[in-house]
């Protein structure tokens, strides 16, 4: 089995949302409606919700810190934008959910039995998108289950609070030289005490560093 991740720059409003609000969007398509999981700065939550509502409609939503979970009123495919999975059957490829949007582009993961099929599909995508190959790999049998579930075997799992604290620290400039934000400020923005914020940051750092193979 072979998997490729393609970065597509096209005409999706989600591209614009991620670029404008420093957000990331994960989309599970359901034909009649979609499930969205969005990460964005706390200050942008209301604006992001409004933009999504204008695009596909918001049937229901849950906001927890910097994370928004949305059930849409309509499917993104019913709107005037280019879909990436229209011709998959002709290339014997499978689109692995979710579709992810970040930094003004769409990321799709494609699975095929033969690497030549991924090459053929890549060439087809070039007719509608500006395409970059983000990664290619051959999957071991033990990796297939995690890959199909949308989980990257190399990516550690952070708790929602660890992710929120770490994201706030990175975006605020905690790791810059000189440091641009203190953990006290990070804690205040997240709404917890400094000692707890420090612990969440350290746990996130340990998980992320532990995932790197030297």
Key traits:
214 residues, alpha+beta, eight-stranded antiparallel sheet, 7 helices, 8 strands, Helix-turn-helix domain-containing protein, transcription, Sig_transdc_resp-reg_C-effctor, WH-like_DNA-bd_sf
Report on the architecture of this protein.
There is one protein chain. The chain has 214 residues and is α+β, with helices and mostly antiparallel strands. The chain contains seven helices and eight strands; from the N terminus they run E-H-E-E-H-E-E-E-E-H-E-H-H-H-H. It has an eight-stranded antiparallel sheet. It is globular and about 55 Å long. The protein starts with a strand and ends with a helix. GO terms for molecular function: DNA binding. Residues 3-147 form the HVO-A0563 N-terminal domain. Residues 158-209 form the HTH bat-type domain.
Q: Note the main sheet.
A: 8 strands, antiparallel
Mean pLDDT: 86
Number of domains: 2
| Rg, nearest Å | 19 Å
Coarse morphology = globular
Write down the secondary-structure element order: EHEEHEEEEHEHHHH
- Note the beta-strand portion: 25-35%
Number of helices: 7
Structural class: alpha+beta
Gap from first CA to last CA: 26 Å
Low-confidence stretches: none
Instruction: Give, in spatial order, the strands making up the sheet with the most strands.
Output: 4-5-3-2-6-7-1-8
Count of DSSP strands: 8
Helix fraction? Answer: 25-40%
């Amino acid at each position: 089995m072979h998997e490729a991740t393609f970065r597509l720059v096209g005409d999706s409003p989600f591209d614009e949302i991620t670029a404008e609000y420093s957000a990331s969007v994960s989309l599970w398509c359901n034909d009649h409606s979609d499930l969205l999981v969005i990460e964005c700065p706390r200050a942008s939550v209301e604006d992001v919700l409004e933009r999504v509502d204008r695009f596909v409609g918001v049937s229901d939503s849950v906001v927890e810190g910097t994370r928004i979970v949305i059930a849409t009123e309509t499917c993104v495919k019913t709107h005037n934008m280019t879909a990436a999975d229209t011709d998959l059957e002709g290339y014997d490829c499978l689109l692995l959910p979710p579709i992810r949007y970040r930094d003004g582009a769409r990321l799709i993961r494609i699975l095929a039995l033969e690497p030549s099929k991924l090459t053929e599909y890549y060439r087809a995508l070039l007719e509608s998108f500006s395409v970059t190959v983000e990664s290619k790999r051959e999957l071991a049998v033990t990796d297939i289950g995690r890959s199909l579930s949308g989980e990257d075997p190399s990516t550690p799992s952070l708790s929602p609070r660890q992710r929120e604290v770490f994201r706030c620290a990175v975006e605020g400039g905690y790791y810059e030289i000189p440091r641009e934000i203190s953990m006290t400020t990070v804690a205040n923005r997240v709404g917890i005490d400094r000692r707890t914020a420090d612990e969440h940051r350290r746990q996130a750092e340990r998980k992320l560093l532990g995932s790197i193979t030297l």
